Amino acid sequence: MTGTWLRHRTATDHADGAAPVVGVASTAVAGFAFWLVAARLYPAAMVGVIVVALSTMQLLTGIAQLNLNKALHRCAAGEHGHRRIGRAYLVSAVLVAAGAVAVVVAASFWAPELLGYAGRVPLLEFFIPATIIWSFFALQDSVVAAAARGGSLPVGNVVLALLKIMLLAIAVVWALQDGSTFTWALAVAAVVACAVGYLFLRALPDREAAPVQQSGLDHAGRLLWSAAVHGLPLLVLLVIGPVHAAVYGIVWTIGFALHLVSSTIGHALTPQAVAAPEGAPTARRDMERRALTLLLPAVVLIEVTAPLVLRIFGPEYAELGSTALRIAAWAAIPGIVTTSAISMARARKRGAVLFVVPASVATITIGLSLILVPRWGLIGIATAWLVGQSLVATVVLVLRATWLPPQLDAPLSAVRHARLLARLRYAAGGQVLSGGDWGTSRVLSGGSQGLVVAVGHPDGTDSVLKVAATPLSREALTRECTTLLALHANPRIGSWRRLVPELVSDGDAGGISYARHTRIPGRPATDVTADATVQDRLAADAVATISELHRRTAYTTEATDEHLARWISRRAAVVRQHVPRADHGRLDQIEQLLIEELRDRRVALGWTHGDYTAPNVIVADNGEICGVVDWEQGDPAGPTMLDPVAFRLIAAVQSGREELGAVVVRWSADGGPYAGELADLQRRLGADPLHPRALVLFGWLHVVALSIEKSARFAANPVWMRRNVRMVLRDAVLDPVDRAHHR
């Protein structure tokens, strides 16, 4: 309540990782000390009025700043930096002064208790200079961050934080007791003059200013959050009186210090996510783990010692606030999730998230407080904070979950897809579909990382738009674009290229990658409903189709250790990360069996699809195969044996309505019903056929490792892992094979 929250929120991210920690710790300790002195020197009712006065002042300052602090952080330095700072200070002073007058004039309606304790003239004498000075301090934080010089910034932040609290304490006490604000104003003005003079004359580096990138939604979310933080003390004063407002101020000072821990660590997450987007999910998990490690013991300690801590301030604080403090402390745990969501959204420039998360917490908290405070007092407001943080954190966890039951996944996926398309259309609608019609687009497939959309065109043709929103999916989309161009440029492929979509355009817009290619008329092989005979013929045609690509591009070579590491060991390592340690021995046995079977064997390498399954095979109305799509796993020098064996395995799963693990366990005994066909395909390309059991296990390892790499949903689904991975590790036949017999 002494400005800790505003001071922290207006401090911007910078390179000195220790500075935010030192600043938050110093302001938290100083705030605790201030309220301890105030509680000992003044009656609880007077402390309650001080709480409300400070909160109202900080809320007013936050509203009137118009996000100037963010602008100053990015443009304070440079040739015209001093002029920008001066204009920002002037605009802020005029706005907050006008707001202060309006607040005091209207105090008869919104806070008559405040007028009763202070009087209108002393209140006006306090609010006008206090809000102006506080707005300068808040803006000054951003300027100091922009002008930071190594290790000097933490020291400056600490000194400024202590000065703010001490001088503001003097202002409140003098203004509300006898109206003697003149001496306080001189003291604060002197400090501000020294700080501003230092910034203008010494600290601002002569470098070019960075472009201003403000988010109106981010600012709106901050304002609603500020309304909850700084507006609820007024609710307590109006509903249950100044004594309870004083207790709430102490409870909130202690409880919100816990929230600042995750917020401070979250500040470090944002630049990490910007610098290395592919590692952002891991950085987020590390941030949440560190915050939980720090907060959980602190919360438990507060649960045990809450009455003792509050008794330091006075017996009425312990009596009225112990339970509320315990509840408010627990609200910091779900606050870790909401804070990490905001930090990630700021790194990814997701304005909607920056608004929705804090606004939802604030709205739920304020709404519940209006209902619960008249009934439960301070326990009601603490419960409102806990419920608000918990509900929003639950939604965040559900939305970012790698696996959900189909009943939840389908509607959430529809929302994600619509949002992703809206973002892309807003960022570069004409650039993406200069000849297309967004109105006739329809989603063909999609997941948590991207989606595939069929787009209609005025001439009656369709194209396929692929959208990728995560680093992993963007990388896959880049690979597919490269593969499509290479396939159409390869003269050895010849007429087979008619089966391959042709890339029309690709690019990036608004943090989203996209690629548009021609759409091959037809339907996926999985959508062809026919009897078993037709299905068998279609599967045979699909194997023959991909084998023709192999025939045109293949060459033979001996499998080297580099090949074995890429084809086997790397994929086994992917699977090993997601199975229990008890299964590692069987996985090692499969890895060793495949390495021994393939080492120094003559194998056929050539253009492979890498994910050759029925959904990626397009069938015309006459039943003929007319296209092969989704080439993100394409490889110009892949082992040709994998495409047909993977297709046969997945086709058996789809036709027999059983899981992959059950098929692999059966086929591991004798190679399955297509062992002869697969051996002949290898011989035709001049390769030494693998043992049927080894080939089946090789195909299985490729399929499951690829599935896990493509989407975290597979590894996160315990049913899928048990039926498709652990079943094979547990039950597959792993007897040694006779290499010589199969050469």
From TrEMBL:
Domain Aminoglycoside phosphotransferase: 442-640
Keywords: Cell membrane, Membrane, Transmembrane, Transmembrane helix
Positions of transmembrane segments: 21-38, 44-68, 89-111, 126-148, 155-176, 182-201, 222-240, 246-270, 291-313, 325-345, 352-372
Topology with respect to the bilayer: Multi-pass membrane protein
Subcellular location: Cell membrane
Keyword Membrane among UniProt keywords: yes
A Pfam family: APH
UniProt xrefs under Gene3D superfamilies: 3.90.1200.10
InterPro entries from the UniProt entry: Aminoglycoside_PTrfase, Kinase-like_dom_sf, Poly_Biosynth_Transport
Protein name: Phosphotransferase
Source organism per UniProt: Pseudonocardia yunnanensis
